[in-house]
Design a protein that fits this description.
137 residues, alpha+beta, 2 domains, 4 strands, elongated
Length: 137
């Protein structure tokens, strides 16, 4: 299915909205009520059919960006139903912000990679804490 420039624009908007939604989880609720950007409502069509094993199957519908948006939103829906949606996160390293799936046992991961993002950030924070007493003297 070919996509046009205008399709890409719509899909970039959906991607930005999903990233904004995931990034808002990193706010620790401190400014949860202070959203400067109102969340957009994305609508896509899907059909439900019964397969040969009696399972209800959701299928995307539409053309262009609407079909791709339906695919994405169906994945979001299924992840929310399976309670895995809360494991999709944005890396807390401000220089990274990669979206990642948190595989930690208690869903406490904040870095997409401890090695490349967690350790350097923790080292920076440690060094910053070390500097505070000396600058105050
Ligand atoms: Zn990262």
């Amino acid at each position: 299915m070919p996509l046009s420039e205008s399709d890409l624009e719509e899909l970039r908007g959906l991607r930005a909205e999903l990233r904004r939604l995931l990034a808002s989880r990193n706010d620790d609720g401190a400014d949860a009520g202070d959203r400067t950007v109102a969340p957009a409502v994305h609508v896509a069509a899907a059909a439900v059919r019964m397969d040969r094993d009696g399972r209800a199957v959701l299928e995307p519908r539409g053309q262009g960006w609407r079909y791709v948006a339906a695919l994405v939103l169906l994945e979001v829906f299924q992840a929310q139903q399976a309670d895995t949606w809360r494991r999709l996160k944005i890396c807390r390293n401000a220089r990274c912000t990669t979206a990642f799936f948190d595989r930690s046992r208690n869903n406490s991961g904040v870095w997409h990679s401890t090695k490349t993002c967690g350790n350097p950030e923790n080292l920076r924070a440690h060094r910053a804490r070390q500097r505070v007493p000396t600058t105050g003297l």
